[in-house]
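Q: What would this chain look like folded?
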Amino acid sequence: MKIRHVKAVAVFGIVLVALTGARGSGGGSCGGSSSGSSSSGGSHDNDSDTTTSGGSTGSVTGGSSANKALRDVTIDSCGLDASGKNLTAKITVNNSDSLAYAYDVNLEFKGDLGDTSVTKATARIDDLQVAAGSSAKGEATTAYPGSGNGSEYKKCEVVSASRTAS
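A: My prediction, written as structure tokens:
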């Protein structure tokens, strides 16, 4: 392959990532599989970070400190619990910084894109303590607003995350 072809493929890849909006992990399937990964990089020099995002899937490294809290969160699974009464999302927060943080994470359960018949449901995790250079798991739960089996909820997303030095 000629060098100009390699350059063209590299540019296409960068443009594709930019156009798809790969920002931090936040999307997950409500079927129980994880659809995103997250990694954090760079140094941190603020005591508090807050980010609100559409919760797209993908992975990002570096960037501004305002995006770090969102990128630190990965959805492990989400869906209706065994009782059939609650929607739950299990997350992992990876803190690669040298300070301990308390994380607040807001998640939203949704149907398919454009499906307006599904009532959005939200859940929150407050003050999830994550030591420096460590990971912690958390679970967000909210009452199931439907009357079926929960199959209308196709995905969950992290809609905002913040962290405060603890």
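The beta strands are 27-29, 48-52, 73-80, 86-95, 101-110, 121-130, 134-143, 155-165.
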